[in-house]
UniProtKB/TrEMBL annotation:
It holds the Pfam family Sugar_tr. This is Organic cation transporter protein. The keyword Transmembrane applies. It is found in: Membrane.
Amino acid sequence: MATVPDHWCNIPELSGLKKYVAKNLSIPTETTFDGQLKFSQCFMYDFNYTNTSNISSTNVDIVPCKNGWFYDIDNDGNSVVSEWNLVCDNDFSVILALILLGASGLIGNYIFGYIQDGMGRKPAYFIYLLIQCIFGIATAFAKNYVLWAIFRIGVGFTVPAILGTPYVLVTLSIIVWAIRNWRWMSLATTLPFFTLFFHWWALPESPRWLLAQGRYEEAERVLHNIARVNGKTVPSNFITNHRGKKMLVNNNPHDQKKYGIKDLFSSRNLRWKTSIVTFLWFTNTSVYVGLSYYAPALGGDEFLNFFLAGAVELPTYLFLWPAMERLGRRWTLCISMIIGGTSCLATFLVQNGKYLDLQLFF
């Protein structure tokens, strides 16, 4: 959606020439960080292009683009970058939109946490879904960058629900490869969500939430249905025992206290643990998003890179699930972060060469 296609200064007087001829006449070259020469994307020779016979690249001023840019969308397709010229002096606009997308996801976590606890998991899920659909459709019809960024913030509220799902990234890369227009891509990745509204009649409320709210009859019906589908039975005294424990809690004035976010910082131990968990969440999310979005920029086929960035996660489940059962969540998290952090740091050892891309995927 926000891919940056190859671009260079637009010279209306040279529009009748082939692209490579026009670039050679009007665009200076620059040296990249790895020592390679490429045509500048933001500067041009300051010639009088109405008379091409006197054009010479010696002793001529180099100036910023005067007439916008020409985008090579044959390979990359149309994106918000090419539609609204979010390049050169405006290139931070894309990064800003990505930052706002992530920040809204953080806010969405807190907001929907309250909605889930207050209204239930089922209503919260469909509210989440409705927001995704509304802002996803609105994104496709954005008339300018500001509206597009606002709509992406709305979509960002729903990002945490799907961010860490590798098969979503794999599927998304296929959709993006097939649909090169960002507006159609927005519709293609949003419209299928409308079919999920039909799950309202099939999706039960969370039994855990029902039990916490004291709605024992509803919880019992849901649990019996789940057990029946899985060929299991619910112990006859399960609900009775839980009801008894709930009554004991209700009779204890201390246990009836309402807890909120400020209680996470009420003691030194809780402050320490809350800070650690928050830091881990922020770090993992930042690195995950960074690597996922950086994958297309590794060189070669950007669609294949994005596909591989999601595909390489799938085998990790062969380790994670057994590890969580045997080692527990804490040790599994520590081992995973050590491996991931070491792999990221290892990229500094090889700044050039064919093994750099492999290290980033690892």
